[in-house]
């Protein structure tokens, strides 16, 4: 089984369903990536600060060696961390990330957050984080325009085929489009029934920018991080509306949540180390929820955000 695709403004096709690499442990990462590729996943969504790009590369290399795929069959995504926003720091860190992954180019490269932090040499701290080597948050004076121009140069140098942003608001995207030589091809955002960001989605899709949702299962993605807000929020898997739709279509609650997004032209990047769930999570485009079910899930919106950088900046 493979995933249908979304045509990006860059001209490339992005799979509508991918495998997310956030919180994939280093000791199991290579095996999980290999299993995901074997199950049919072709989009792998990673980032520098996930701290597992070398292991992701090992899984990719093994899959290619075993003949499961060719490099051109894969859609490899990564992100620029906040401490590398200064224009002259972008290309060097991207080349390091590519080397860690063992690939020559990214299919899609995103600015991870619209937050510029002071440069921290990878020799001092890697994977990167929100703080410097002394545990302090220090801001950089790099503007989004400066960073975006450096990211655009990655396309010119064939280090990235498509570029985009993550965790940007509509207002920031409006500003970016004013000066962009290469328009962002994609936006990645936290998106689930408790945080639907409807106006942002409408605006971005109207601009022809593809949207990828992360944390499609809402609080479940954050419970293991000991986040009190996530622990006190009812899980979507147990919600009667989601469970009812799952029973009616003979699907899992996870499949219902993923189909709710893909049916609205939003890409998803779930993860699992369970072979059965890997296959199930990929099967979220070949069937449809009824409009009444979509409307009922739409009514669950609480504007409840879990991945808020302000929490990290309070350190």
Automatic annotation (TrEMBL):
Active site, renumbered: 50 (proton donor)
Marked site (Lowers pKa of active site Tyr) residue numbers: 79
Keywords: Carbohydrate metabolism, NAD, Oxidoreductase, Xylose metabolism
Function: Catalyzes the initial reaction in the xylose utilization pathway by reducing D-xylose into xylitol. Xylose is a major component of hemicelluloses such as xylan. Most fungi utilize D-xylose via three enzymatic reactions, xylose reductase (XR), xylitol dehydrogenase (XDH), and xylulokinase, to form xylulose 5-phosphate, which enters pentose phosphate pathway.
Pfam families: Aldo_ket_red
GO molecular function: D-xylose reductase (NADPH) activity
Family: Belongs to the aldo/keto reductase family.
PROSITE patterns noted in UniProt: ALDOKETO_REDUCTASE_1, ALDOKETO_REDUCTASE_2, ALDOKETO_REDUCTASE_3
Annotated coiled-coil segments of the chain: none
Involved pathway(s): Carbohydrate metabolism; D-xylose degradation
Protein residues bound to substrate: 112
EC numbers for this chain: 1.1.1.307
Reaction(s) the record says it catalyses: xylitol + NAD(+) = D-xylose + NADH + H(+); xylitol + NADP(+) = D-xylose + NADPH + H(+)
Stretches assigned to the NADP-dependent oxidoreductase domain: 17-300
Record-given protein name: D-xylose reductase [NAD(P)H]
Signal peptide: none
Organism of derivation: Talaromyces rugulosus
Domain of life: Eukaryota
The UniProt record lists the keyword Oxidoreductase: yes
GO annotation, biological process: D-xylose catabolic process
């Amino acid at each position: 089984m493979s995933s249908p695709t979304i045509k990006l403004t860059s001209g490339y096709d992005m799979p509508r369903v991918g495998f997310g690499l956030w919180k994939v442990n280093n000791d199991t990462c290579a095996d999980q990536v290999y299993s995901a590729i074997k199950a049919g996943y072709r989009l792998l969504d990673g980032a520098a600060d996930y701290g597992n790009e070398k292991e992701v590369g090992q899984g990719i290399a093994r899959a290619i060696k075993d003949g499961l795929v060719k490099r051109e069959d894969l859609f490899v995504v990564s992100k620029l961390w906040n401490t590398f926003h200064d224009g002259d720091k972008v290309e060097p860190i991207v080349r390091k990330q590519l080397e860690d992954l063992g690939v020559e180019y990214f299919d899609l490269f995103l600015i991870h957050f619209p937050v510029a932090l002071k440069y921290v040499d990878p020799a001092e701290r890697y994977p990167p984080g929100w703080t410097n080597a002394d545990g302090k948050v220090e801001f950089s004076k790099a503007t989004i325009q400066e960073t975006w121009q450096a990211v655009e140069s990655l396309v010119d140098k064939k280090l990235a085929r498509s570029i985009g942003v993550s965790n940007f608001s509509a207002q920031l995207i409006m500003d970016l489009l004013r000066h962009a030589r290469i328009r962002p091809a994609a936006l990645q955002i936290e998106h689930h029934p408790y945080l639907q960001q409807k106006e942002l989605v409408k605006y971005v899709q109207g601009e022809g920018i593809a949207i990828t949702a992360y944390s499609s299962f809402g609080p479940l993605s954050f419970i293991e991080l000991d986040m009190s807000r996530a622990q006190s929020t009812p899980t979507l898997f147990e919600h009667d509306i989601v469970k009812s739709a799952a029973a009616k279509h003979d699907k899992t609650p996870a499949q219902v949540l993923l189909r709710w997004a893909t049916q609205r032209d939003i890409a998803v990047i779930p993860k699992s180390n369970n072979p059965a769930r890997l296959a199930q999570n990929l099967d979220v485009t070949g069937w449809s929820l009824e409009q009444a079910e979509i409307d009922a899930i739409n009514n669950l919106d609480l504007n409840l955000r879990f991945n808020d950088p302000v929490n990290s900046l309070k350190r």
